[in-house]
Amino acid sequence: MQFVKTALEGCVIIEPKVFGDQRGYFFESFNQKQFEENFGKVNFVQDNESRSSYGVLRGLHFQLPPYNQAKLVRCIEGEVLDVAVDLRKDSATFGKHVTVRLSDENKRQLFVPRGFAHGFVVLSCSAIFSYKVDNWYAPDHDSGIAWNDPKLKIDWQIDTSAILLSEKDKVLKNIAETEIPF
Q1: Which of 2, 107, 113, 147 has its CA 20 to 30 A from that of 26?
Q2: Domain that holds residue 155
Q3: pLDDT, tens digit, 9 for 90 and up, residues 144-172
Q4: Closest alpha carbon to 13 in 86, 147, 110
Q5: How many domains does the chain have?
Q6: Torsion sign, CA atoms 62, 67, 72, 77
Q7: Would you say residue 38 lies in a domain?
Q8: CA angle (96, 152, 179) in 5-degree steps
Q9: Is residue 10 part of a domain?
Q10: Which are the catalytic amino acids?
Q11: Domain of 62: which CATH number?
């Protein structure tokens, strides 16, 4: 595996070594030893998966302490634009974001540490998205920021008229109006 740093400290793209032949392919999607060598000890406690159609945007989500989460995300089928926003108030990159295309073809993953908001939009007809988290889902500690906050200037690489949101995501507020506890 290759670990590629992004402009946001701690947010890292993971590119697996893929072995392919006429039968198909094989790759390690997770290796605890290599992961710990690059990130230190992270104890993943839950795996999640979603299937979404073109234009579905999920995010930008985070959980409030003590249930904040680090995530290791990947797209198993299809293609998404994945986004992580730095919400660490003491960080030089507070409010900045990184975008990465994750797909079944490139097999990339993104590690999103605690203190970040996370979201993605589906760019293909449909996508299956998978992620590991290091803390339990706690609905009472669920939070997020608006996907279209003008201060964030995220280019979602899709016509905004095609974006489909959950009722929960439709009411998220801009970063300036959201309690950021990190």
Answers
A1: 113
A2: 43-177
A3: 999 999 999 999 999 999 999 999 999 99
A4: 110
A5: 1
A6: negative
A7: no
A8: 85
A9: no
A10: 61, 131
A11: 2.60.120.10
